[in-house]
Amino acid sequence: MGDTPEPAATKPATIELADAREKAIDLLSECFARDMLGVEDFERRVSLAHAAGSMAELGSAIEGLETGAGAAQGDRSAPKMVHAAAAAPLAEVRAADRAVAVFGETKRAGRWVPARRNTVVAFMGSAVIDLREARFGPGGATFSVVAAMGSVEILVPPGVNVRCGGSAVFGNFGQRGPGPASVAPDSPAIRVDGLSVFGSVEIETRHPGESRREARRRRRLEKKRRRRLRR
Predict the structure, then answer these.
(1) What's the pLDDT band for 231 if we cut at 50, 70, 90?
(2) What is the structure's pLDDT at 83?
(3) Is-contact 52 14, C-beta < 8 A?
């Protein structure tokens, strides 16, 4: 007696979400090909679709799409940007904090609340500041970074306003890869400054849970898709 097929209703939620994400990206690509979305709006919505962890979040990526008469008349109005960084109550936000790595490693990640002013020091060590699931207070956060023969990596989610200004002496200090295609006016501001001496300070935009290799692959695929759609 053969096995009874698994009913569609019991299909794992993760598979349903993956299927829905693929369909949403196909829909966005079709709208972009028909000039119903601008380049920046298309990139923003695709980023939201990749970052979605639930059906509700995925709905934000296609919210406001005009597929009827309004789209045919060239209506490109876009909904308000939904960024990955969540807001934290003011009472939870500390005035200052520090992360120090000396001959070792330190990491901040997950659902945490950065202070308004943060000091990050890596001396012959490494520090990772993962802000992809962080909750920010009003005005965002400032990071003063010093890397001396060490490395500091700051990961930010798409749709966040990043302002980078630092100096490097026999090292590097700056953003890796392209920044976000568009930034919402009310998104939290992340300000990074400091000094790198024989070390590196890198800021990179990635989706939550996305590795560096996956981010590179995603950017290549999105670039190929945009090039193909333009043709």
Answers:
(1) low
(2) 41
(3) no
* CA 96/CA 192 separation, integer angstroms: 15
- Angstrom CA distances, 127 to 59, 82, 186, 226, stand at 35, 29, 28, 35
φ, ψ of residue 34 to 5 degrees: the values are -95, 15
* pLDDT, greater one: 48 or 182: 48
The candidate with the shortest Cα–Cα distance to 153, out of 124, 131, 178, is: 131
What is the chain's percent helix, strand, coil content, to nearest 5?
Answer: 30, 30, 40
Which one-letter DSSP state was computed for residue 176?
E
Number of Cβ within a 10 Å radius of residue 144: 16
Nearest CA to 115 among 131, 102, 100, 126? 131
Q: Which residue has the tokens 């979400």?
A: 17
CA distance linking residue 118 with residue 132, whole number of Å: 16
- Between helix 55-62 and helix 13-33 the angle, nearest 10°, is 0
